[in-house]
Amino acid sequence: MSGPRTGGCLCGAVRYRVDGPLRPIVMCHCTQCRRMTGHFLAATAARRGHFTLAASEGLRWYSASPHARRGFCERCGSTLFWEGEGRDYISIAAGSLDDSSGLAIAAHIFTADKGGYYDIEPGAVQSPDGTFRAEFPAR
Ligand SMILES: [Zn+2]
Ligand SMILES: [Zn+2]
């Protein structure tokens, strides 16, 4: 999996580019992600040095906790980014990618908080408490 990849929000007021590998997708079922997205967050990620904003006039940030902030578009409401304090990557909502081909789901996290109306596919990697391993591909 290698860049460049592009993506953005529904209205186009936020656009980004990733010049480097994308991490496999982590599905976060925590209460904050469920409320923000309306379902759960399917997130890939890019190393900070590989991530560039190409359009950011719609980008706003919301901090649901002191240690992370969530990026969204103020015009169209799209969920876009998650940035954790001290992390060397930015999480990117997989649905915002123009082309997500080749990416696979690595794990489901915070499954203890998942919604009651759906099931996680049998055999999928699950982490009740949010710890996970999902390595960036070499390139
Ligand atoms: Zn937008
Ligand atoms: Zn979450």
How would you describe this protein?
- The chain is mostly beta strands and 139 residues long.
- The protein has a single domain (5-115), classed as Beta Complex (Metal Binding Protein, Guanine Nucleotide Exchange Factor, Chain A), CATH 2.170.150.
- The protein is 5% helix and 40% strand.
- The protein is built from one helix and eleven strands, in the order βββαββββββββ.
- The strands form two sheets. It has an eight-stranded mixed beta sheet. Strands 1-2-5 form a three-stranded antiparallel beta sheet, with no helix packed on it.
- It is globular and about 40 Å long.
- One zinc ion binds next to loops.
Secondary structure class reads: mainly beta
| Secondary-structure element series | EEEHEEEEEEEE
Main sheet record: 8 strands, mixed
Strand arrangement in the largest pleated sheet: 6-7-8-9-4-3-10-11
List the helices and strands and how they pair.
Blueprint: E1 5-8, E2 15-18, E3 25-28, H1 31-37, E4 41-47, E5 51-55, E6 59-65, E7 68-73, E8 79-84, E9 89-93, E10 105-109, E11 126-127
Parallel strand pairs: 3-10, 10-11
Antiparallel strand pairs: 1-2, 2-5, 3-4, 4-9, 6-7, 7-8, 8-9
The protein binds zinc ion (2 copies).
